[in-house]
Design brief:
By secondary structure, this protein is an alpha/beta fold. It is built from 16 helices and nine strands. Bound molecules: guanosine-5'-diphosphate-alpha-D-mannose (GDD) and manganese (II) ion.
Length: 402
């Protein structure tokens, strides 16, 4: 899962060039994973429909994540027959939302769309969606929860989970999910200019929430549709999608909040700092747990126990900061000597942090008469920012330009 923001270019080429090579009006992305038994019918049906209504003014972009059933190969075999078709095979990445964004990045259309590759989203609904866009909507969504909408055959559990997810989203992100009757929909069209040059970093399945959360979406149109039963293959939805969904909601919540706007103003990497803080918390748990083990259970002297426990906590924090908080930087410097150098520096910074903490504690408690526990908390907060900033600037920094 990458936490790098992706951007859709505004107009891929100049207006004159667009005129010359006829930039299509609609680019429809079809994300696929193991849809070998659906993709042929999918492309046939869509081409027939769009050849009739938007002759050579549309393109279909299949984005396949290296499906074991070789969906990409089957789709590539259709390009001769369907000149509007483009196939992208991703081999290093996996994920529905990022696949859609990858397709939109390669697309040339003025209107960008997404439809599932398993015929559960009825292609004929596209006309109604296009009509909504022509009426001035920035975003047109196919919804199961407006008039004419529904689900043909979903288990009670899946219906419950889907609605439950919607309610959770309304609690965490009311300003985004509250604008849609079916925020879970994977079938919609959006004007390129509403999302162009906006950093998009979705997680998992819910690309629509990302578009509404980060895009410049003024007017939304909704069209009812019935989610069809799958004819071939199976859904890829697992518990991971629910975990990703929660992560996605929290990430959007953070990035849209006042704190984040302030952090952006002062260019403070809030997301990374929160991860650093989370790792720090795990270190405190390890520190306390090991202190109890060494001193109370094994009867080791208090100072020695405290030093052992602190060092293990530092090792834990280093490991998770290297693998998670600063993963994108550490990934570029994996040689054992580089890792060891970072560990040494991390230890040094933590040690200096400890000294700073004792100093601050004394100034607050003895100098300013602040309550001991409040003084300790303030000292911990200040030292956490100090540790983070020093490590960000002096330890996990890109030394070689890639
Ligand atoms: N490239 C790529 N990579 N495509 C993927 C991946 C992936 O990791 N995972 C799934 N897909 C493709 C599938 O091949 C299919 O074409 C489409 O994304 C939807 O996946 P399904 O697994 O069939 O999802 P679903 O039918 O259970 O749920 C769909 O409908 C719901 C209701 O609208 C999804 O669109 C959900 O997002 C949506 O909530
Ligand atoms: Mn499906």
């Amino acid at each position: 899962m990458s936490n790098i923001a992706l951007e859709i270019p505004s107009i891929p080429i100049s207006v004159e060039e667009a005129e010359k090579i006829r930039q299509p009006y609609l680019s429809l992305v079809i994300p696929t994973y193991n849809e070998g038994r659906n993709i042929v019918r999918m492309i046939e049906t869509l081409s027939q429909l769009l050849d009739a209504s938007l002759p050579s003014d549309y393109e279909l972009v299949v984005v396949d994540d290296d499906s074991p059933d070789r969906t990409w190969e089957i789709a590539e075999g259709l390009i001769d027959r369907y000149p509007q078709l483009q196939v992208i095979r991703r081999q290093q990445e996996r994920g529905l939302s990022t696949a859609v964004i990858r397709g939109w990045q390669a697309a040339r259309g003025e209107v960008l769309g997404v439809i599932d590759g398993d015929l559960q989203h009825p292609p004929e609904i596209l006309f109604k969606l296009l009509h909504e866009i022509k009426q001035g909507a920035d975003l047109a969504v196919a919804s199961r929860h407006v008039e004419g909408g529904g689900v043909s055959s979903w288990s009670v559990i899946r219906r419950f989970l889907s609605r439950g997810a919607q309610v959770l989203g309304l609690v965490i992100l009311p300003r985004v999910l509250g604008r849609l009757t079916d925020p879970m929909s994977g079938y919609f069209l959006v004007k390129r200019k509403a999302i162009a040059s906006r950093p998009l970093s979705p997680v998992g399945y819910k690309i629509l929430i990302e578009v509404v959360g980060r895009g410049d979406i003024q007017q939304i149109g909704e069209v009812g549709y019935v989610f069809q039963e799958r004819q071939a293959g199976e859904s890829k939805v697992t518990w991971r999608q629910y975990r990703d969904y929660l992560h996605h909601l929290l990430r959007l919540r953070l990035s849209s909040g006042r704190i984040n706007r302030l952090a952006q103003k002062i260019n403070f990497p809030l997301g990374r700092f929160l991860r650093f803080g989370f790792v720090g918390l795990s270190g405190v748990v390890i520190d306390m747990g090991l202190l109890y083990l060494f001193h109370t259970v094994w009867g080791v002297a208090l100072t020695r126990s405290a030093i052992f426990a602190a060092e293990f906590a530092i090792l834990n924090n280093f490991f998770w900061n290297d693998r998670w908080t600063f993963a994108d930087v550490a990934r570029q410097q994996r040689s054992p000597s580089k890792v060891f150098k970072r560990l040494l520096k991390f230890n040094l910074v933590c040690l200096m942090g400890l000294i700073l903490k004792v100093l601050l504690l004394n100034i607050l408690f003895n100098g300013l008469g602040v309550n001991a526990y409040l003084a300790n908390l303030v000292a911990i907060a200040i030292v956490t920012v100090w540790n983070f900033w020093i490590n960000l600037k002096l330890n996990w920094r890109v030394t070689e330009t890639q």
